[in-house]
Amino acid sequence: MDLALYGELAVNGALSGLMYSLVAMGIVLIYKSSAVPNLAQGAMTMLSAYVVLAITSRFGAPMWVAIPLAMGTMFFVGMGIERVALRRLAGRPIVMILMMTLGLDIFIRATSMAIWGGTTRPMSIGISAEPLFLGPLLLNRASLVGAVVAIALFVIFELFFRTRMGIVLRAIADDYTASWSVGISVDRGVALSWAMSSAVATTAGVLWGSVQGVDQSLSLLLLKGVTVAVLGGLDSIGGAILAGVLLGIFEAVASGYLDPLVGGGSRDLVVAAALILTILIRPHGLFGRHDIERI
Amino acid sequence: MLFRQAGIFHTDYAAARALFPVTADRWMIIILLLLALTAPLTMSSLALSTNMLPWLVWTSAALGLNLILGWAGQFHFGYAAIMGIGAYTAVHGARNGIPWEIAVVLGGLMATVIGIVFAFAALRVKGLYLALSTLALQFVMDWVISHVPAISGGIQAMLQAPALRLLGQVVASDAGLYYVALGWCLMVTVLMLNLRRTALGRALVAVREKDFAAAVIGVHSLYYKLVAFATSSFIGGVSGAILIFTFYHAATPEQFEVNVSIQLLAMVIVGGLGSIIGSYFGAAFILLMPSLLNSLIAWLAHHMGASLGVEALAHIPYAVYGALIIIFLLVEPMGLGKMYNNLRNYLLVWPFGYARK
C-alpha cells in the first residue's frame, strides 16, 4: 500500500492523539489524587467549550480573554462537583462512584443541551484551516497547536508537581491515609485536583471545539480519553502523553486501513479494541503503578 | 396490620426458611398477584401496553443485571449489548421459521455464549478495569450489530419481528402480550427469590464480599463468576428478545446502545443493589419518570406562563434523570429497595419499636 499515505495518517494521528491526551490528563489528575475514575470528563470538556462560547457571545469578550475566564469558571465548577457530589462518596464501593460520575455526565450533558441547544456551533480561535506542508506530508494546523498545548501542559504539570502544593498532591496520590496523618488536608488536595482537571478540560474543549465545532459529540471524547488514560497507566501524566501518541497513530492507521474494508466508522471500534487489549494484556498501563489486584 | 410479627413462631427449619415468613407479606403478594393478573380488565389498554408491559420486561432485565452486579458483585457495563444479542438471535430465528419459544431460548443461549466472552475479562481483572472492559465490549457489540448487515439488515435498518406465536397460537392482543411479559417477569423473580436460599446464591454473595476469602472457605470464585455471568446473560438475552417481540415489534441497533446499558445500571442502583423489590421500583422509576416529568413541566409551563424552548423541554427530563441518580447516591445509596425495607421494618413491629431486631 501507499507508504506516504500511511506516514501522513500516522503523523496526523499522533498529533490528534496528543489532543486525546488533554482529555486523558484530566482523568489522570483526578484518579491520581482520589482514585475516582472520572467518567464525566467528556461532559466537562463539552461544558467548558460552551462556557467559552457563552462568555464570548454574552459579553463580547475576545477569545484570549474568554479562554482564561472559562478556565477560571471551570476551576470552581470542578471544585463544586467534588464538594457536592464526590466527597461524601469517599470510601463507598467503586460501583457507586462510577455511577455517580455517569450521573454527572448525563446531568452536565443534558443541562448544557437544555441551556444552549443542540445545534453545532463553530468556535474559531484563529487557526487557519490550511494544511501545513512538511516535505511530502500534510499536517493539520489545529492538531499541531493541540499537540503543542498538550506537551506544554505536560511540562507545566511536571514543574507543578515539584512545587510545595504539587508535592502535597503527590503525597495524597501515594498514600492518603499517611498524608492525612502528617497533617495534609486531603480534602483540599482532592478538590484542587478536580479544579485543575476541569481547567485542563477547558483547553481540551477549546481545541476540540475549534476542530469539530461545539456540540454534544464533544462528550464522546470520553471513550478516547479513558482509553489513553488506561493505556498510559491511570496515575501517570507522562503515560497519558505517550499513550495519546500511540493510540492516535494506532487509531489513524488501523481505521485508515479498515475503513475501506468495512465501509467506514471503524474509529470507535479500534479505540474500544485498544482499551480491551490494554486491560487484558497490561491492566496497569505503560507507566501505571502495579498495585492492580489480579484474580 | 399492626405488630405483624405477632404470633409468628418458627417451629421447624422449613418455616424459618420460607420465602415469605410473615403472613402479612404473603397476603400482600397474593393481592399484588391478583392485581397483576386482572390488570387487562382494570387498566386501559393504552396504560397496559405503554406502561405495564415495558415495566415488567425492563424489571426482568434489571433483575438479571442485579444478579451479576448486586449478588456476584461483578461490573457489567455492557448489559444492553447482551440484551441486543438475545433479541437479534431470537428475531432471526423466528424469521427463519424456528418456533417462537425455541427462538427465544436460542437468543438466551447465544447471549450466554457471548456473555461468557465478557466474563473472560472478569477472570483477569476486577473493579474499575472490569467496568471499563465491559464498557468497551459494549462499544464493540454496538459496532458489530450495526455494521454487519447479516445481523441488523444494514446500517440504520429495522428488523421487523414476526408475530409472537406461543405454542402455535398467535398472541397479538395487548392482554396476551402483557401476560407473556408478566410470565417471564414472574419466572425471573421466583428464580431470584429462591437464589437467596440456595448454595449458589450464598456462594455468589461470598464471591462479592471478598473473592479470596470465598476461596479460603472452599468457594471456587472463578467458577461462580462464570456461572453468574452466564445466568445473568441468559436472563438478559431472553428479556431482550421478549422486549422486541412484545413491545418494540422491530429491532434496531439504537435500542441496545450504550446509554441503554447506563439506564439499566441506573435502574439497579436507584432500586438498590441486590434488592428484588428494588428492581421493580427502580425500573418503574427510570421508565415512568421522564413521561411524568414531561407532563409536569408542560403543566407548570401552562400554569406559570413560563415559555420554554423545544430543546429545553426535550433535555430537561434527562437533566433531572442525571440529577436523580446523583441525589439517590448521596441520600440513599442502597436505593428504593432499602427505603421500602426501612419502612417495612418499622411497620413490622409498630407500635412496639423497641421489639425490633
Account of the protein in words:
The complex is a heterodimer of chains A (295) and B (357). The model of chain A has no long low-confidence stretch (mean pLDDT 86). In chain A, helix 9 crosses helix 10. With 295 residues, chain A is an all-alpha fold. Helices cover 73% and strands 2% of the residues of chain A. Chain A has one domain: ABC transporter involved in vitamin B12 uptake, BtuC (Orthogonal Bundle). A two-stranded antiparallel ribbon of chain A has the order 1-2. Chain A starts with a helix and ends in a 14-residue tail after the last helix. In chain B, a hairpin with a 2-residue loop joins strand 2 and strand 3. In chain B, helix 3 packs parallel to helix 8. In chain B, 74% of the residues lie in helices and 3% in strands. A two-stranded antiparallel ribbon of chain B has the order 1-4. Chain B is globular and about 65 Å long. Chain B has a domain of 234 residues. Chain B has 357 residues and is an all-alpha fold. The chains are: A mainly alpha (295), B mainly alpha (357). Chains A and B meet through helix 4, helix 9 and helix 11 of A and helix 5, helix 6, helix 12 and helix 14 of B.
Shape of chain B: globular
Helix content of chain A: over 70%
Query: How much of the sequence of chain B is in beta strands?
Result: under 5%
Shape of chain A: globular
The count of DSSP E runs of length 2 or more, i.e. the number of strands of chain A, is 2
Quickly count the helices of chain A.
Answer: 11
Helix and strand string of chain A, N-terminal first?
Answer: HHHHEEHHHHHHH
Strand order of the largest sheet of chain A: 1-2
Oligomer: heterodimer
Biggest interface, which chains? A-B, 48 and 47 residues
SSE order of chain B in H/E notation? HHHHHHHEEEHHHHEHHHH
Report helical residue fraction of chain B: over 70%
Radius of gyration of chain A (CA) equals 19 Å
The major β-sheet of chain A equals: 2 strands, antiparallel
Mean pLDDT of chain A comes to: 86
